[in-house]
């Protein structure tokens, strides 16, 4: 999409208007905004699917939101969104369509890339995944020695790991508890070691997940896993077929590795790695939760896709959340964004979002290659509450940084919690509600004094408040709700990339390190190339080699 004729973001009248509005807003406190509008707590809320989204504790007024929507209109967010859904090649630096939304489209949808409807192919792979998952889950698929598969080890990295690993944790209460499912990503041999050391190779299935099937970490771990298997089984290459399947776009490389392409589950170059866990990359998850739950999850994604595509700007939740992030980055100098789930099952959720958001929007040139002179993607971070409360919340409450935060919670605990533990849910959720309240409204010096606090301690015990948060509340954490949440964040990231005029779907920034590692590796084992290193790296490599006796 050519954006050369587009006015630079910070030279648009809409940006200027927002800047002026920000000055007028000054230090207006949330206390004031709530006092001015007694219905703010119910009025500043939206719903999408099962998600109740409260944005009342943001440093915005109706006027702010109107100006932000005008910025979205001026920067062509809706046009780019429609182009994405139509299958146009909006990932210009890689000349690719961006169609993760096709992965959850219904069977009768028609979405074309280069004149070909991709939806039948999507469903053919989903059906093949379902048939395979059923065979593994029922015990019909056996290993080389005829034993039932009891362990599934997913080997992948980045988008080929974070999504299924996160979703497996989130949906643990929906998994077949008889199956052991583990995820290996790190090229540190310790990762594979810990994953397989107590497993019986005769009962273990390796799922090798790699879009390109060239990623060095994954191919190295997959090769080591194959050696472990063949040694453990005391078998030849023919044992691989019953213990290895591949998830990839690259049939040639899969065959080269020795995996029968009949056991390959395909996806396509229009699925970005970080947008791929609802494709074949979700196979380990599907084996764990079963095809029906997986399809429920896809329906959840689709529900939010349709909302994003069709809801008017005033009601469009991903649009709103994306614009709020633009607002804080540009006009409050917010550098980071915290995602704080109040569910233990969401323990890997923020790590997943880190790749989704930071690999997508960690860019500093616009889509035409010009340097941007506005903030782009934030540092995304966070861990589940209430653990964070006893670690870093101090800085959010009383530090010097502006950190917008998302709080995600559920009205009901997951279904299979031990009965004695269900009562703890109220305490968890009391913390959930208390934190956003404290962050928004704080505690004034007078309130502190009224508690009889000694004057010299008053500044220390004062909370200035005015920290912006979004609260996302759902009834229960189900496969559908997980799909809804992920699609919500995917489209939020999309909105921000569109406003900032960056390509959210490439990731050139990860390449240089890979190239340099390839050059350094032989030097570590005594090969050539050390003389080309800078003096710092050369000295570090030398120290490493000395330690390893080389
Ligand atoms: O699935 P692959 O091709 O092994 O790539 C893994 C990951 O590597 C990256 O390309 C970054 O290095 C991610 O975008 C991707 O998710």
Automatic annotation (TrEMBL):
Protein name: Glucose-6-phosphate isomerase
Family the entry assigns: Belongs to the GPI family.
Pathway: Carbohydrate degradation; glycolysis; D-glyceraldehyde 3-phosphate and glycerone phosphate from D-glucose: step 2/4; Carbohydrate biosynthesis; gluconeogenesis
Coiled-coil ranges per UniProt: none
Record lineage: Bacteria, Bacillati, Actinomycetota, Actinomycetes, Kitasatosporales
Keyword terms, alphabetized: Cytoplasm, Gluconeogenesis, Glycolysis, Isomerase
EC nos: 5.3.1.9
Family annotation (Pfam families): PGI (PF00342)
Active-site residues (renumbered): 359 (proton donor), 390, 514
Role played: Catalyzes the reversible isomerization of glucose-6-phosphate to fructose-6-phosphate.
Entry superkingdom: Bacteria
Catalyses which reaction(s): alpha-D-glucose 6-phosphate = beta-D-fructose 6-phosphate
InterPro entries assigned to the protein according to its UniProt record, in alphabetical order: G6P_Isomerase, G6P_Isomerase_C, Phosphoglucose_isomerase_CS, SIS_dom_sf, SIS_PGI_1, SIS_PGI_2
Localization annotation: Cytoplasm
Statement: the UniProt record of this protein carries the keyword Ion transport: no
Enzyme class, broadest EC rank: isomerase
MF term (GO), any: glucose-6-phosphate isomerase activity
UniProt cross-references to SUPFAM superfamilies, sorted A to Z: SIS domain
